[in-house]
Amino acid sequence: MSPSFLLLLLFLLGFTTTPATTRCTTATFIKTYQKCVTLPTQGASLAWTYHPFNATLDLAFSGTFISPSGWVAWGLNPDSPAMTGAHALVAFPDPSSGGLLLLPFVLDPSVRIQNAPLVSRPFGLRLLSSSAVLRDSRSPSDGSAVLIFATLWLSPNHTRVHHVWNRGLYVQGRSPTIHPTAPSDLASRATIDAASTAAETAPQAPDALRSAHAALNAASWGLLLPAGVAVARYLGHRASRGPSWLYAHAATQIAGLLLGTAGFAIGIVMGNRPRGAEHRLHRGLGVAAFVTAALQSAALLFQPKATNRFRKYWKSYHHLVGYGCAVVGVANVFQGFDVMGLGRSYWKLAYCLALSTLAGVCVALEVNSWVVFCRNAEEEEETTTTTTREGDSMEGGRASSSQKQGLSL
């Protein structure tokens, strides 16, 4: 195992996230509320007063911008603690005046992929009033605090409310773009009882568990298994090296499979925990990579002998499944970076550098293989041509001697 690989593994394992923590307050510069709670992500908080005589909820959500051109949103989901189906109030800078706008949106299932820009729609719930103000500045900037005020009418005896909130980097016109996908962003939801202050938040997998999952899978599916494929392709045809290439190929693949199995098991444990988002593509690619690796391992038990007529079909299957496993594994590593919110991070850069190094070595070996192949083909053609000429000259000599003997007779 190379030192650079160990360095990358330690580099990835060292990733941890430190959640921002703030203390809630019931007092704002506009009014004072009866209760407050610190929300579990993004340093957000919520203050409110519930009026049981008319079932109205008066609240103030506190959040922060992460970009001068970004947005901050708070909303309610009438059915479940999830972003899909929520009715949200989104605050962002007015592109024409530079002031603060607050528009209502309904987040239907298409918001996950956002093929088209979001269009403002009525809140949909019984919203009596709403407004938004910046707390410490005149215009939004990175880190600016914003307060979103709202007054709603709740159904009698239904005081458990599903709150959702989030923030993003950009607004296109008057349409907020997709927010970051770090675990804390995907878990931005809480169910709070307005009467008793009982809160149910979205539990997240421990940072160490996510880091181990990321590091093991990046090292195994993303590096070791492709390296094993490269060993078999570029060293297997060299008979002068004997069976050493086979041992190197098997050792690399076994190490990658063991680490990948451990990472896959951690992923299953994380997947069984309650969570705020379904990473279906990431999960599907992970299952596909693990299944193809298992098929490769099972195929070794049924490997025909070299003289068997089915050997060529087994080799085609082995090559096809092996390449497919490597491609799916690398694609899922990149998908995992996006799921963890590391799409533009040094962790992804380190992996890209390691993968680029491996790809560069493969390109150099591929070019060398073609040069050797073309040289051998040319030498073989010259040998064949020389042999043919020698044969023709010998036949010509024999024919001339026969003619001479005929003339002498």
Automatic annotation (TrEMBL):
It holds the Pfam family Cytochrom_B561. Binds 2 heme b groups non-covalently. GO terms for molecular function: metal ion binding. This is Cytochrome b561 and DOMON domain-containing protein. It comes from Musa acuminata subsp. malaccensis. Keywords: Electron transport, Iron, Membrane, Metal-binding, Signal, Transmembrane, Transmembrane helix, Transport. It is found in: Membrane. PANTHER family: CYTOCHROME B561 AND DOMON DOMAIN-CONTAINING PROTEIN (PTHR23130:SF60). Heme b binds at residues 213, 249, 282, 318. One of its GO terms (cellular component) is membrane.
